[in-house]
Amino acid sequence: MPTNHLRANGERFWDTIEASAKVGPGIAGGLRRLALSDSDREIRDLFRQWCEAAGCTVTVDQMGSMFARRAGREDLPPVMVGSHLDTQIAGGRYDGIVGVLAGLEIIRTLNDQGITTKRPIEVVNWTNEEGARFQPPMVAAGVFAGVYDLDWGLARPTRDPGPNEGATLGEELQRIGYAGAEQVGGREVDSYFELHIEQGPELDRIGVDVGVVTGGYAVRGMLIRIKGETAHTGPTPMEKRKNALVGAARMIVAADDLGWDYAGSDGKVTAARLTVSPNLAGILSDHAELSLDLRHPDPAKADEMLTELERRIAQAARRSQVEYEVIERWVFGDEYFDPDCIDRVRSAAAELGVSHQDMLSQAGHDAYHMASKYPTAMVFSPCGDGITHNEAENTSLAAQLPAVDVLLNAVVSRAER
Amino acid sequence: MPTNHLRANGERFWDTIEASAKVGPGIAGGLRRLALSDSDREIRDLFRQWCEAAGCTVTVDQMGSMFARRAGREDLPPVMVGSHLDTQIAGGRYDGIVGVLAGLEIIRTLNDQGITTKRPIEVVNWTNEEGARFQPPMVAAGVFAGVYDLDWGLARPTRDPGPNEGATLGEELQRIGYAGAEQVGGREVDSYFELHIEQGPELDRIGVDVGVVTGGYAVRGMLIRIKGETAHTGPTPMEKRKNALVGAARMIVAADDLGWDYAGSDGKVTAARLTVSPNLAGILSDHAELSLDLRHPDPAKADEMLTELERRIAQAARRSQVEYEVIERWVFGDEYFDPDCIDRVRSAAAELGVSHQDMLSQAGHDAYHMASKYPTAMVFSPCGDGITHNEAENTSLAAQLPAVDVLLNAVVSRAER
Q1: Smallest Cα–Cα separation from B389: which of A107, A413, A286?
Q2: β-pairing verdict for A218-227 and A191-197
Q3: Contacts of residue A388 in chain B, CB cutoff 8 Å?
Q4: pTM of the full predicted structure?
Q5: Distance of alpha carbon A103 from alpha carbon A81, whole angstroms
Q6: CA B29, CA B145: separation in Å to the nearest integer?
Q7: A256/B90 Cβ within 8 A
Q8: pLDDT (tens digit per residue) in B259-274
Q9: For burial by CB atoms within 10 Å, which of A17, A54, A64, A99 has the most?
């Protein structure tokens, strides 16, 4: 079996990427294809048609994740390959999408070559990876891997104003016709591979084609509830103020300063979301909710940053005369991928003559959850200037094709195991 | 004519305050009676009934402000007395309300005593003083005094999610039946008097019954639009981040620090309202709008603070790598009330044997706009612990009655002029 040196059909792959980019157009050529929106339904329908036309059997699980199965020579646990087709509110055309459609391209290439692998291959489209409408992100892969309960996953509410505000993930799955019947997870999976744009500037900067992802940056996050006291914005003396907005601002600045303190070793701290109430002219706010997270390539350093962040948050609260409590915490990253799967990615790149380099993922991915239960690896492709979660996300077929070929050969080699 | 030493009927006044407190109940005994809401209509209907029962003629102008006129012996320009019946989102039972209902109590007391003043007296309820639903606050008094155009006032949109979001002030006036026919302002007014709770702790702290308000703190405010860039919260290096939320937070902290720098001379700086978009997990925000204001008893110091605030805002923006522009500015306070009107308040207090002290107002009031065109004065009554714009706003008849009596005698003395 000539399992190595397979080559994908680049033109067909890119045509499919461009067909996807017509569904759910956002601003300035980007996409706004929020999970379980009408445009998500549209791309799901299209993905299903493409997979069925390529001879796959498509099933949908109770979390709405889609699995397009190409049978193997033997009825063994499948090699899975995929990512997500949903986008951020002002998202690009490639984040997640490249990974799913590269999976489809693997199927099509195997069809062209008349190859049937030993193990089945399943191309996956995970529900709600982005978390733009439903928190947390990567929830469906998390339920699949047993990290979250199914009932909890289905009960996630939409968090932001807009159509169907307050509807649950389960209700929105029903609405768009993707509340599948298949049990979530609970079956044997041989391995999971995910190709994703890097979402960082490194590959683009150093001119390397493929990142062999060995694991993830350690991430520690928290949601903080801040309690102040309403009062008139005018006469209330500074020393009597308990303005929740000022409390949140002091925490954000403390967090950002900490990020700069660790920037030299590639640490980062982010304030992504703040809600304040009543948030009106004339009145000091008594309530705020703030999410903060930090990342570092070294889990021990991440823990050190977390300790320091908590110290500075307490200080910011005292300085602002507000009270607070941490009402949610999350930890991810710290995942180190499977040596055999990583090695198949690295070997495929070497054999294809594709320039490559080991790296850690900085963003969260469905692969993190999968790695907690199944042998997993990731392939990174370059991302123009590192810009992502922005409509200006940019890349080209020439930049993506080497990574698609690496994924193809790594997946096929594992499927022959 | 025994115009001095009149005494209001305290029990009746307080019964009316309590009847008002049943309309639009908020949390914990407070009120939530937002301008032009259904409960605002309800209190307006009640106020009209009370005034008509007291023999007044009630007219409504095109901004919805209500004028209950008690005829004088001569058809001269009236002495106006009033405030507002709308509240903050989590407001109290007294802010504004005490001033309008003290005006009504003046009419009732004059009826009891069979006194007809030389000039007419008009009790006013100004539309949307608080600005909780429509910005700016004090908009109807502003139109009355010619500070704003009528069309602009009617076109103010609701700013916050809720019933009838996006409706204009004019549409909401129509909806509740208070789009009056009378021209706004443009007629002669002898003078304007307003009784208001102090909204600060001073009278309560020093045990003085009445504040003789000689003018207002100087206020300088601005609405800042901050422009960042969306990017992934994870991999984006600190040095590439242009997070609008961090930019806003650094401006808020700079503003709050400035407030503390001037706290010794009773300066204050406030961040009251911040909106951020897209404000989602996973993405750095590219847009924020922040309102800041500062106050100082000395206009020259307020200008000095403003210069320093602008310097620090520019610094905060540079530090956060965001751009910004000031899209709105406002200046108020700097108003010094009319010597004759002030003197009538001071004399009334002295003759009644009520303890009193000159002071400046720190909050904005409808009286500020009126003072720009007509002889004006204000009377402050104590406010328990200085708490206001909070459901815990607290006072008693014993604390309010001296101020009501002072207002009564000052207004009647001016109406005899």
Answers
A1: A286
A2: unpaired
A3: 231-232, 235
A4: 0.81
A5: 6
A6: 34
A7: no
A8: 999 999 999 999 989 9
A9: A99
